[in-house]
Amino acid sequence: MLERTRDGKSKTVLVAGGAGFVGSHLCDLLLGQGHRVICLDNYLTGTQANVRPLENHPSFASIEADICEPLRIDERVDQIYNLACAASPPHYQADPVHTMMTCVVGTRNLLAVAERDQASFLQASTSEIYGEPEAHPQVEDYRGNVNCTGPRACYDEGKRAAEALCFDVLREGRVDARVARIFNTYGPRMRADDGRIVSNLIVQALSGKPLTVYGTGQQTRSFCYVSDLVAGLTALMEVDPNPRLPVNLGNPEEFTILELAERVADMVQTSSALEFRPLPTDDPTRRRPDVTRARTLLGWAPKVGLATGLDATIGWFAATLRDTHDYGRAPATRRTEPAGAAR
Ligand code: NAD
Ligand code: UDP
Asked: Which 3 state secondary structure label does DSSP give 307?
């Protein structure tokens, strides 16, 4: 039997960025819960392959559109998830102005649809809004330490502005907006050329290439498996009443990048050497979510540990790289090829 929402009704859900890594897992989950899902994407970093298995599902529809442009959504929607935005540093820095416009103008355009339909709205924000954090672990009340003129600012400041827009329309009583601050998430359907650490290391290890470590590798991140994240996103969308506060979603287990590289090398059983490269500008030194708020308000906690999540992700990449299809293709950047993707 299909599970439905807390109130037992099937809803029409717009997932902006639905052809991306996280978005496609969210589409799967929502369809499995019995909802109608409209995936909206411009395929900048997402792929048709991610949603191809859904194409014949009677409750699935897709729209190719850029959220920076005026949106035409003919159907009335009940919920909107805004996941549309390149998330990997080399990809979001490839066209920084478009990234900023996606966060600000794009979020404004989607909020207008939510206001029209009186739909609930969930913004995919990010741990990047904490910048180089002086507080550790990061609690939601920490206001962050972002360099507003650096190469990461298009994303970090764009996402901060998007949060501000969401809380403004919420305070004005115009949209039931919710904000999830997502920490590093990984899993199947990341692109081989995504450029983020987990996919880079796995692709490099599987293809016998050196594992690239930026800086000393002593910087830390906390890695959340994608099924845990999408469960958290839907819990935040469904919780009643609206918490009216940003909520961290991530796995609090913290690892250095060197520890992660060693673990991937062990699991893939590769003899690949480590290759140290310069640390990118403004790369945060440490990151770990305090998820007390998510536990308390949503009853949510991550369930998948790093070993299990990496095992599933390595298995998926191994199978995908063996087959020839879309996942490994060159990135669909708008202006320049991103530097830093796995080579
Ligand atoms: P992704 O790059 O795989 O997905 C982003 C999707 O948005 C892609 O399908 C892309 O084509 C689409 N998109 C980008 N710009 C668009 C635009 N202007 N109009 C329409 N579609 C557009 O990234 P992801 O990892 O799946 O991230 C999804 C969301 O979650 C992003 O908003 C990201 O900022 C947020 N997030 C992700 C992580 C993570 O670790 N995965 C961490 C923090 C926040
Ligand atoms: N990183 C690395 N090698 C890579 C890719 C990334 O050492 O091939 C580092 C990067 O400098 C950062 C961490 O891994 O310190 C996480 O990078 P990612 O791009 O995955 O996410 P973010 O920096 O946005 O947290």
From this structure: helix
